[in-house]
Amino acid sequence: MDHYIKVQNSGRSNPQRKLKYRIHEDTVTLLDERPILLNGQWIEWGIAQFCRSEQGWGIYWRDLKNHWHALDNIKPDTDFEKQLKIVKQDCQGIFGD
Q1: For the segment 10-25, what is each residue's pLDDT rounded down to a tens digit?
Q2: Is there a contact between 64 and 46 (Cβ–Cβ < 8 Å)?
Q3: Using CA atoms in the order 17, 13, 57, 92, what is the torsion angle rounded to 10 degrees?
Q4: CA distance 16 to 77
Q5: Which residues contact 96 (CB under 8 A, 6 or more apart)?
Q6: Which of 17, 74, 77, 79 has its CA 20 to 30 Å from the CA of residue 27?
Q7: In 3D, which of 10, 86, 14 has the Cα closest to residue 47?
């Protein structure tokens, strides 16, 4: 993940936005960090979550009420990088950038 984040951040057109991640138990959360107006504070917004289960890594998306939902049309996969690529491609337009 460190390499992925470094590559993604170096290619962003807006240096005021940073991609980050957080790991908690069997969940990896991909975050977008950006400043709030001019007050110097930064906020984090969850872009996607990857949750590991016996079936593999499931992908979850976040709604405007901060609730996470499974991406029903993509099955869990043991290949984390494959799931990360699906989020990066964002064919359904739900992960934003």
Answers
A1: 866 666 788 899 999 9
A2: no
A3: 110
A4: 33
A5: 32, 47, 90
A6: 17
A7: 86
Convert the pLDDT of each residue in 36-91 to its tens digit.
877 778 888 899 999 999 999 999 999 989 999 999 899 999 999 999 999 999 88
Distance in angstroms (rounded) separating the CA atoms of residues 46 and 66: 8
Instruction: Give the global pTM.
Output: 0.83
Tokens, residue 30: 């991909």
Cα Rg, the chain, nearest whole Å: 14
Measure the CA–CA gap between 65 and 40, rounded to whole angstroms.
25
Residue 80 CB burial class (10 angstroms; 0-12, 13-18, ≥19): middle
Helix spans in the chain (H): 2-10, 80-89
Residue with tokens 């491609």: 89
Torsion angle of alpha carbons 80, 82, 85, 87, nearest 10°? Answer: -70
